[in-house]
Design goal:
Blueprint: E1 13-21, E2 26-33, E3 39-43, E4 54-61, E5 65-66, E6 81-83, E7 87-94, E8 101-104, H1 107-112, H2 116-128, E9 131-134, H3 137-151, E10 161-164, H4 165-172, H5 180-186, H6 197-204, H7 208-232, H8 242-246, E11 259-267, E12 272-278, E13 284-286
Helix pairs in contact: 5-7, 6-7
Length: 304
């Protein structure tokens, strides 16, 4: 099992041999992080401290089929729907894990518009996750999955926290576009594969080659999603606190133990707090919720 880098919290590490450590008084495994270059050691017999289970995922859905009175702009009523949407595929990966998981309907399932098997496999992952990350995950992916879950009489997964990279991008940045494809191309990250409308039509027709292409497209979406998430993570102000989940004094955004106090102070109407910066993901944050003044004040005037 791979170690977690104490600086950048990445798991992309390589073994550098085993030596005896006088400080640990036992054999230790030497590691080198391939992400940040840090070299570190872990006692071979020491318990492994795991990060919370953070799942990045994305789904692809079929088309709605409906009838209408023409090609002009019009409101489509629910009784005009002839075939309902279903989940074609999903792709997911655990944060820092190299493996991309996925599932997609078979050609026959696509023709039958039957997605229960695919729903059960993503339901299992959501049930294990502490935090779920996605681009527009709160407005689309999770709501669409919940609708398909209840349509197929599947119970809801266990509760988890969510991080919507689209929502945070819109909140923190004045970017020309907040689409994942735009962000990955601008920052030169893993970008989406090129597709067209015909791919969705071929998938609904049960074309095996089209379904394989859809699954590959879905996997690339998740690889790009992870890179977008790590890029904007230092700017996410209400990130689920990993220190609470790990029950440790670590960076709330990435779980790194390398924290340094800055000269900055964060002021409220009644107190001031020291500002710390994570040396792994560079997130600035308020580490301790206590008054940093040397003189204890029992009464402080505040504006109404």
């Amino acid at each position: 099992m791979r170690a977690i880098c104490p600086k950048c919290t990445g798991s992309h590490v390589r073994k550098k041999g085993v030596i005896y450590s006088k400080s640990y008084e036992c054999n230790v495994q030497r590691w080198k992080c391939l992400s940040c270059g840090k070299q570190f050691q872990t006692p071979i017999d020491s318990p492994k401290i795991d990060l919370p289970k953070i799942l990045l995922f994305d789904i692809e859905t079929s088309l709605y089929h409906f009838v209408g009175w023409g090609t002009f702009k019009q409101f489509i009523n629910y009784h005009q729907i002839t075939k309902h949407q279903f989940v074609l595929s999903w792709a997911a990966k655990w944060l820092y894990d190299e493996n991309v998981l996925s599932d997609i309907v078979t050609p026959q399932e696509s023709l039958d518009r039957e997605d229960k098997r695919v729903l059960m496999s993503i339901h299992k992952l959501l049930d294990e996750a502490d935090i779920v990350v996605g681009h527009n995950v709160e407005r689309f992916d999770l709501r669409k999955l919940n609708w398909r879950f209840i349509s197929q009489d599947i119970e809801p997964p266990s509760p988890f926290k969510t991080i919507d990279t689209l929502k945070h991008s819109r909140k923190e940045f004045f970017a020309p576009s907040h689409k994942q494809d735009s962000l990955t191309k601008y920052f030169k990250l893993q970008h989406k594969l090129e597709t067209d409308f015909q791919l969705w039509m071929d998938c609904e027709d049960g074309n095996k080659q089209a379904l394989n292409k859809m699954e590959d497209y879905n996997k690339h979406d998740v690889m790009g999603l992870e890179e977008v998430y790590l890029k904007i993570r230092p700017y996410i102000k209400n990130h689920p606190n990993l220190g609470v989940l790990m029950d440790m004094d670590v960076c709330p955004n990435c779980g790194c133990e390398h924290l340094e106090e800055t000269e900055s102070r964060y002021f409220t109407t009644a107190n001031q707090f020291p500002v710390y910066r994570c040396q792994g993901c560079k997130t600035p944050y308020i580490r301790h919720k206590k008054n940093s003044n040397y003189v204890q004040t029992n009464l402080r005037s505040v504006p109404k």
